[in-house]
Amino acid sequence: MADFTYQVFSEVAKQKTLVAAAKQLQVTPSAVSHSLAGFEKQLGFPLFVRNRNGVKLTPDGAKILPIVQELLNTEAKLAEEAARINGLNQGQIRIGAFSSVCINWLPDIINSFKQTYPEIEISVRQGTFNEVVEQVRLGTLDLGFSALPIKENLEVIALHQDPIYCIAPVGFKPRNGKTITQEDVVNEEFILQQIDYDRDTKRALDAYNVSVNSIQYSIDDASIIAMVESGLGLGILPALALQNLAGKVQTYPFSKEFYRTICLVAHTKSQQTPSTKAFIKTVQEYIKQRYA
């Protein structure tokens, strides 16, 4: 670790008071004062001028500051390199995700991560929102993509608000020509995955008073498209799920805005490995660039 004396000197120069520096370093003011006195004795000249408002660097102290800061920066680089050697050149990250993330996000995210950390093995397991969260909780996955809300005591990082749309067969047209309203869904049946019904999809259907008896359940997103295309009902899918699905259907927004919040779930930061932390950072950078 970097010499505590260097940290003290740098922080006092930044904060301009011993009390403020002590607070940032989480030590007592007397410890800061003692460290500075020892450093000045070692160097043979004063580093600060004390006054009623705090401290000010002496001309000699100002000359020393960039040298000390360079030493601190070098120490930080050394720590980063040690972490990379110990944790980022080996090991494995076990990831869980639901289907549309597996298809649309993970290939690019993993390729980007592999460019920097080619030696880390990555495995991907597909599952439902709840399955992914449960496997992270149990420790069989290191990281998972799910959707809010998350009740388990895990690290939860919101990533993206994914709009929810109504899928209709060719020839269907909303009464106002643009959005799906209450009038459009009267006597209509909806097709969706059962696993979605306890989250934002249910909230959308409840807002339009769609009864449970008017809902059919499908196996996956592609089968929803196929059933809608055949005229068996209206579908409801988020934007991400629609990106790589083909079919002769039409997509309309609801008159009220609905979305699901896609998130990352992981163990608490203190339990995360360096490689998991690096992967989380890669995911966040990818989302920022994709939806900028």
Query: How many strand units?
Result: 11
Enumerate how many helices there are, as a single number: 12
The percent range for helix content is 40-55%
Rg from Cα = 28 Å
Low-confidence regions: none
Structural category:
alpha/beta
Quick summary:
By secondary structure, this protein is an alpha/beta fold. The chain contains 12 helices and 11 strands. Strands 3, 4, 5, 6, 7, 8, 9, 10 and 11 form a 9-stranded mixed sheet that branches.
Structural commentary:
The protein is α/β, with parallel strands linked by helices. It is 46% helix and 23% strand. The chain contains twelve helices and eleven strands. It has helices at 4-15, 18-25, 29-43, 59-88, 99-104, 106-116, 129-138, 182-185, 200-207, 221-229, 239-242, 274-290; strands spanning 48-51, 54-57, 92-97, 121-126, 143-147, 155-169, 190-193, 215-218, 234-238, 249-253, 259-266. Strands 3, 4, 5, 6, 7, 8, 9, 10 and 11 form a nine-stranded mixed beta sheet that branches. A two-stranded antiparallel sheet has the order 1-2. Strand 1 and strand 2 form a beta hairpin. Helix 1 (4-15) crosses helix 2. The longest helix is centred in the first third of the chain and has 30 residues, at 59-88. It is elongated. The model has no long low-confidence stretch (mean pLDDT 89).
Note the topology.
Layout: H1 4-15, H2 18-25, H3 29-43, E1 48-51, E2 54-57, H4 59-88, E3 92-97, H5 99-104, H6 106-116, E4 121-126, H7 129-138, E5 143-147, E6 155-169, H8 182-185, E7 190-193, H9 200-207, E8 215-218, H10 221-229, E9 234-238, H11 239-242, E10 249-253, E11 259-266, H12 274-290
Helix pairs in contact: 1-2, 1-3, 1-4, 2-3, 6-12
